[in-house]
Amino acid sequence: MILRIKVTPRSARSELTRASDGTWTARLRAPPVDGKANTELIALVAGHFGCRKSQVTIKAGAGGRIKLVSVAA
């Protein structure tokens, strides 16, 4: 499954929510420095879908706010 996620780093809490149009929004506590926000995003998505972190990969947008994330079934 491929998810389109808009990321907001340095938030007060970490959460993953789905909008009515099918896109996802991730609020992350980690700053976008040295891949910390991407690492937290992978852990957040894995926890939400009940899979291992190794099954979640960022396919596009690793350096931007809008990311395409793949979750292996």
Outline the structure in words.
It is a single chain. The protein is α+β, with helices and mostly antiparallel strands and 73 residues long. It has a single domain, classed as 2-Layer Sandwich (Conserved Hypothetical Protein Mth637, Chain: A), CATH 3.30.1200.10. It is built from one helix and five strands. The chain has one helix at residues 36-49, and strands at residues 2-8, 15-18, 24-27, 56-60, 66-71. A five-stranded mixed β-sheet has the order 2-3-1-5-4, covered by helices on one side. Strand 4 (56-60) and strand 5 form a beta hairpin. The longest helix has 14 residues, at 36-49. The chain starts with a strand and ends with a strand. The model has no long low-confidence stretch (mean pLDDT 94).
Q: What number of domains?
A: 1
Helical residues, percent = 10-25%
- Strand residue percentage: 35-45%
End-to-end gap: 7 Å
- Assign the CATH topology: Conserved Hypothetical Protein Mth637, Chain: A
Strand order of the largest sheet: 2-3-1-5-4
Descriptors:
globular; 73 residues; 5-stranded mixed sheet; alpha+beta; Conserved Hypothetical Protein Mth637, Chain: A; 1 helix
Task: Chart the SSEs and their pairings.
Elements (H helix, E strand, L loop, with lengths): L1 E7 L6 E4 L5 E4 L8 H14 L6 E5 L5 E6 L2
Parallel strand pairs: 1-3
Antiparallel strand pairs: 1-5, 2-3, 4-5
